[in-house]
Amino acid sequence: MFQSIGIPGLILILVIALIIFGPKKLPEIGRAFGRTLTEFKGATKGLVSDEDKGEGEGENPELTTVEKKQDKSGDA
């Protein structure tokens, strides 16, 4: 996707972003973007791992760990 941009294109994009947002706001924008990517990556990992488990195990996927422990201790 970004193979045709190259180093000069990236430098140009960085200079334009620096002019538009200023030197004080640019690090904040970078941190926010990084957090967003991290959250997105975590959410997609969760979705993929849920699909890998399968739904035929007979457990209620809406139960949390605490609820599962309570169910098991109440059965005994």
Structure, explained:
The protein is built from 2 helices and no strands. With 76 residues, the protein is mostly helical. The radius of gyration is 23 Å and the shape is elongated. The mean pLDDT is 77.
List keywords for this structure.
single chain; 76 residues; mainly alpha; 2 helices; elongated
Short description:
With 76 residues, the protein is mainly α. It is built from two helices and no strands.
Tell how many strands the DSSP assignment holds.
0
Sheet with the most strands, sense and barrel status: none
Q: Mean of the pLDDT scores?
A: 77
Q: Which quaternary structure do these chains form? A: single chain
Q: Calculate Rg over CA atoms.
A: 23 Å
Principal-axes geometry comes out as: elongated
Helix content: over 70%
> What are the low-pLDDT stretches, counting only 5+ consecutive residues below 50?
none
Order of helices and strands: HH
Beta-strand portion reads under 5%
What is the number of helices?
2
Structural class: mainly alpha
Gap from first CA to last CA: 57 Å
Helices and strands, with pairings:
Blueprint: H1 6-53, H2 65-75
